[in-house]
Amino acid sequence: MEAQVRNGNRKYKKTISRKKKIILGILIILLMGVVCEQAGEYSDKIKYKPVGQLINVNGHNMHIFAEGEGRATVVFASGWAVPSPYVDFYPLYNEISKRTRIAVYDRPGYGWSDVADTPRDIDTITTEIHELLEKSGEKPPYILVGHSIGSLEMLRFAQIYKNEVKGVVLIDGSNPDMYSNRVKPSTFAFVRASIFHKTIFLLNKSGISRLLFNTVYNYSSTVLSTARNNLSLAPDSFVKLDEAMFLRTCLNSNQVDEGNNKEKNALKVLSNGYIKDIPLRIITSEELNNYKESKENQLNLKKWSTDSKQIIVKGAGHAVHWSHPEVINAEILDILNNK
Fold first, then answer.
1. Which CATH number is associated with domain 53-183+252-337?
2. For the purposes of burial, counting CB atoms within 10 Å of the CB of 272, is it exposed (0-12), middle (13-18) or buried (19 or more)?
3. Which residue ranges traverse the bilayer (predicted)?
4. Which of 23, 146, 297, 319 could join 178 via S-S bond, C-beta 3.0 to 4.6 A?
């Protein structure tokens, strides 16, 4: 009996010891992954230096890229969690900059901008953009181009600084009205989204995403690439830059806060009224137009200006600027040439 007990204890201790070794091994591998990722991000930082200016705004550095000359400045605002606005808007500004001035900015937590401690409410976001434009030397009048959730800050900019705005172009833009009667997500949905965001963030920071991209699952296979026509309209080097920015910035605290604040930010824009007679062009993808709710939201954006027009782009997904940039550029130039 005593021998059986001793054998049992030895087996138990061996099992515990084995589990400890496995856990220790996993921790060592994760630590090595974190160290390798930090080294990778440092290498990326050296390789992909800012292409524009880094300007101190509200206590943190914000990046802005500008080029071209003309009588107006076209300002581009990216959608949510886009790794690099500089890459994302290439199909548009590469052509528009031949005709006038363009400026692409990175919100805090995006591209080359710092992760900021300031809140991500719509008025903070918008006033930071205005300060960035002023400090970087950009001049109005501005033609504001916003994709997806970036449309909220463009509409708010037009509300606050209406005398500086020549026109607004929204690409599958978020309609502030869409949140007024919307049922709030359940606690379960919120927790599920939070787990997903943190998982992506941890995969990036532990080096697992970088390992996958370099071995079995290329960045070009991710939805961030495939949904944007595999970034085929940009130079090859832009794909690697976008990948580096994804690994560095995806779903950091600023981006998560933006996502959590989208309803509150939309209602703030809604409460401050329409943009009156400022020219407004609404670019709607066939993808959004195929769903009743989003179709109505896009159509209702026309109410936001007395000088509005909607263009439905057949065959386009949400990233219209990667499949049909010529449609958007034509509307930008129409506003530019409208005296």
1. 3.40.50.1820
2. middle
3. none
4. 297
For 236-293, what is each residue's pLDDT tens digit?
999 999 999 999 999 999 999 999 999 999 999 999 999 999 999 999 999 999 999 9
Residue 18 has pLDDT above 90, yes or no: no
The DSSP code for 234 is: S
Kindly tell me the sign of the dihedral angle through the C-alpha atoms of 119, 124, 129, 131: negative
Non-local (6+) Cβ contacts of 308 within 8 A are: 279, 280, 281, 282, 301, 302
d(CA 155, CA 68): 24
Sorted by sequence, the CB contacts under 8 Å of residue 163 that are 6+ apart come out as 140
The phi and psi torsions of 328 (rounded to 5 degrees) equal -70, -45
> Per-residue DSSP letters for 54-122?
EEEETTEEEEEEEE--SSSEEEEE--TT-S-HHHHTHHHHHHHTTTSEEEEEE-TTSTTSPPPSS---H
Instruction: With beta carbons less than 8 A apart as the criterion, state whether 301 and 173 touch.
Output: yes
- Segments making up each domain of the chain, as ranges: 1-47, 53-183+252-337
- Give φ, ψ of 313 to 5 degrees: -100, 105
Tokens 């699952």 belong to residue: 217
Evaluate whether 149 touches 172 at the Cβ level (below 8 Å).
no
